[in-house]
UniProtKB/TrEMBL annotation:
Transmembrane segments: none annotated. It comes from Aliidiomarina minuta. Residues 27-240 form the Tr-type G domain. It is an enzyme of class 2 (transferase). One of its GO terms (biological process) is sulfur compound metabolic process. Keywords: ATP-binding, GTP-binding, Nucleotide-binding, Nucleotidyltransferase, Transferase. The keyword Nucleotide-binding applies. Its EC number is 2.7.7.4. GO terms for molecular function: ATP binding; GTP binding; GTPase activity; sulfate adenylyltransferase (ATP) activity. It comes from the Bacteria. It holds the Pfam family GTP-eEF1A_C. This is sulfate adenylyltransferase.
């Protein structure tokens, strides 16, 4: 007997599945990051949230019980192993990669990003933070606020996260002492004042024992505010409203000669069919002929939708070009001031050429000046001639050609970038644009750009040749 769509939907209605799916779709989604210093219990906390909210399958629990490392010396489940998926992570009891876990309650859906606490994996922490709305910063109740706690809190604030939950973990190891919690609470609020954080909550808990996770703990009667999960369910996150409409072309879709569409994600704002638009950096103008989203042909599209659009005029549009409403002004420049977090083990080299990737566009970039570096302990600024791994620095960057760009404070998608080593293709830094120079720096010729990249390749693989720096040669002439 054939099963029709109508009969299948009727069966699902009888089982209540349709109602469940509709309710699930209507729940708001919250992207949460866990970060903090090494061994503060980030993975254990996520494992506890999954376990206590009954989001684990029986086979996962069985595998944990059967694993020789699946329990602590006290007989408690080693919940961190539910999150740490790499063999090296399980063997060493640390987090290396970013791990994403998904769960839901009656009020909300959650995406949890578990990030590493070790300094050498700060780049992975930045990856997790860049897509999060709330940061849970773990603090060990024995050790209090550490340097990595400060670094991670600063990076979260730098990347635009507004809502912070400081989870003072391992309270069981300090006998649930209220005085110890108040000392750490004071230090956290001092840190928050320094970073100008306005939306913060501080929760004492024990992820291993499950205290103050789902319900208020009997072990800490002196704490009367919300436990962690109810706080996550009820926390209000201000929507990130970007000022202007921005569409950056990611792909030119040309399946046949009669269709030329421009595909990408609408970073912010909205676009409508028939709307006049301006292309950057070419400044050509046209109108939107047709719009398509995941459902097909449409009249209007909104921020964060994956779309394809066509234009009325047959003009040259390439990957990385911007399409914005007609009349909107976009700054085009080849000089930027930016705050960066340096990832690479090799220090930054001024006058060295890197690849700067901003959205879908990639251009050559030279670090012309290190303005200052930031001391992560007191957030003071210091002049420096070197930027090392995990340093936060303010840089002056010159590009090989002018590109459209926004301030990161106005549009995160079109005001943030990564730097790539052109020789190794390694991502060496992530940055946010905080000032755009109206004066354009002198652009190197195409031939000079090639010579500079060739020089870098030779100096890397044949240092014995002692090749003179091209930039020095140019200055001498």
């Amino acid at each position: 007997m054939a099963v029709t769509t109508t009969s299948l939907n009727k069966q699902l209605d009888n089982l209540g599945i349709q109602d469940y799916l509709k309710a699930h779709q209507q729940r708001s989604l919250l992207r949460v990051l866990t970060c903090g210093s090494v061994d503060d219990g980030k993975s254990t906390l996520i494992g506890r949230l999954l376990h206590d909210s009954q989001q684990l399958y029986d086979d996962q629990l069985d595998a944990l019980n059967q694993d020789t490392k699946g329990r602590t010396s006290d007989g408690d489940l080693e919940l961190a192993m539910l999150v740490d998926g790499l063999l090296a992570e399980r063997e060493q009891g640390i987090t290396i990669d970013v791990a994403y876990r998904y769960f839901s309650t009656q009020q909300r859906k959650f995406i949890l990003a578990d990030t590493p606490g070790h300094e050498q994996y700060t780049r992975n922490m930045v990856t997790g933070a860049s897509n999060s709305e709330v940061a849970i910063v773990l603090v060990d109740g024995r050790h209090g606020v550490m340097a990595q706690t400060r670094r991670h809190s600063f990076i979260c604030a730098l990347l635009g996260i507004k809502s912070f939950i400081f989870a003072v973990n391992k309270m069981d190891l300090v006998a649930y002492d209220e005085q110890r919690f108040e000392q750490i609470n004071h230090d956290i609020h001092e840190l928050a004042r320094t970073l100008e954080l306005s939306d913060i909550n501080v929760v004492p808990l024990s992820a291993l024992k499950g205290e103050n996770i789902l319900h208020n703990s009997e072990q800490m009667p002196w704490y009367s505010r919300e436990a962690l999960l109810p706080l996550l369910e009820n926390i209000e996150v201000a929507a990130k409203e970007d000022c202007n409409t921005r569409f950056v072309v990611q792909y030119v879709n040309r399946p046949h000669q009669d269709f030329r569409g421009y595909a990408g994600t609408l970073s912010s704002g909205q676009l409508s069919r028939g709307q006049s638009v301006t292309l950057y950096p070419s400044l050509q103008q046209s109108r939107i002929q047709d719009l398509y989203n995941a459902q097909g042909h449409c009249q209007q599209v909104f921020a964060r939708e994956a779309i394809t659009l066509t234009l009325e005029d047959n003009i040259d549009v390439s990957r990385g070009d911007w399409i914005v409403p007609g009349g909107d002004e976009v700054t085009v420049s080849n000089q930027l001031h930016a705050t960066v977090v340096w990832f690479d083990e090799n220090p930054l080299i001024t006058e060295h050429w890197y690849k700067l990737k901003l959205g879908s566009q990639k251009v050559s970039a030279r670090i012309s000046r290190i303005v200052h570096t930031l001391d992560i302990n007191d957030f003071s600024r210091h002049p420096s001639d070197q930027v090392s791994i995990n340093d936060v620095a303010q840089l002056h960057i010159e590009l090989s050609q002018p590109v459209p760009v926004d301030l990161a404070s106005e549009s995160a998608a079109t005001g943030s970038f990564i730097l790539i080593d052109p020789i190794t293709n390694a991502t060496v830094a992530a940055g946010l644009v905080n000032q755009i120079s109206r004066e354009r720096a002198e652009q190197p010729s195409t031939e000079l750009s090639f010579v500079i990249e060739l020089q870098q390749l030779i100096r890397k693989h044949f240092p014995q040749w002692k090749l003179e720096d091209v930039a020095d040669v140019i200055r001498k002439t």
